[in-house]
Amino acid sequence: MREINVSEITKTIRQLCMDAAYHLPKDIYEGLKKGRETEESPVGRIVLDQLIENAEIADKEDRPYCQDTGMTMVFLKVGQDVHFVGGDLTEAVNAGVAAGYIEGYLRKSVVGEPLFNRKNTQDNTPAIIYTDIVPGDKVDIQVELKGFGSENKSGVAMLVPADGVAGVKNAVLEIVKKAGPNPCPPIVLGVGIGGTMDQAAVLSKKALLRDISTPHKDADYAKLEEEILEMVNKTGIGPQLGGTTTCLGVNIEWGPTHIAGLPVAVTIMCHAARHAHVEL
């Protein structure tokens, strides 16, 4: 049994929030540069030049890459041989988020109640926390900052098995086309297939944590990722103002589902595809 004081969780998440806000992941940065090389639209190339320059300034000066520093999502893989001491794990996570957003001068965007009051909590808490129990004595922490210009354009399609691969492709494409330029493309797509409606959505969020240059380990899903990416980049939506670089990458995660179902969730992430990772 390994003991971890929850103060370590707070300290780690504080830093992860700032790192994710300031430093665009290498795969996304390289994706923007690759898109710049292949972009056919002159205006699209200008937009991509600006996004690349913005990423470089944010990285160098430790400034937020985007003014919408998102709602904080925390993915924990907790080893079953870990025992947390010193306090409540959920409270420790939220304390880390609060510290990161306050001390890092990140925009606080969370309201405590969604409909009638909508009062800002002033520290970007509570975070959305997903916890998986896994073998071992490590704690894997991934923080994802989810902006809502893109989140508002995400969607779920409840298909039936007869819809098959073609149905999945069409569902993803329709969600992307309906979103248009509103999610601040070039986008990254996380696609969750299977499970229930809610699990498919979580899978789509987890898919965004994978490096976009790393294809799915299953050949069939890797091929589907490539095919969807090609379809989306043919829409002409492009980087903000039209072009051929609508999407930088498509990541799929799947789960078992019911014999009568084929849920498909699509989480759209804007070009500020921010996340950070640490293992304790």
Automatic annotation (TrEMBL):
<keyword id="KW-0456">Lyase</keyword>
<keyword id="KW-0004">4Fe-4S</keyword>
<dbReference type="InterPro" id="IPR004646">
    <property type="entry name" value="Fe-S_hydro-lyase_TtdA-typ_cat"/>
</dbReference>
<protein>
    <submittedName>
        <fullName>Fumarate hydratase</fullName>
    </submittedName>
</protein>
<dbReference type="GO" id="GO:0016829">
    <property type="term" value="F:lyase activity"/>
</dbReference>
<dbReference type="GO" id="GO:0051539">
    <property type="term" value="F:4 iron, 4 sulfur cluster binding"/>
</dbReference>
<dbReference type="GO" id="GO:0046872">
    <property type="term" value="F:metal ion binding"/>
</dbReference>
<keyword id="KW-0411">Iron-sulfur</keyword>
<keyword id="KW-0479">Metal-binding</keyword>
<comment type="similarity">
    <text>Belongs to the class-I fumarase family.</text>
</comment>
<dbReference type="Pfam" id="PF05681">
    <property type="entry name" value="Fumerase"/>
</dbReference>
<feature type="domain" description="Fe-S hydro-lyase tartrate dehydratase alpha-type catalytic">
    <location>
        <begin position="11"/>
        <end position="278"/>
    </location>
</feature>
<dbReference type="InterPro" id="IPR051208">
    <property type="entry name" value="Class-I_Fumarase/Tartrate_DH"/>
</dbReference>
<keyword id="KW-0408">Iron</keyword>
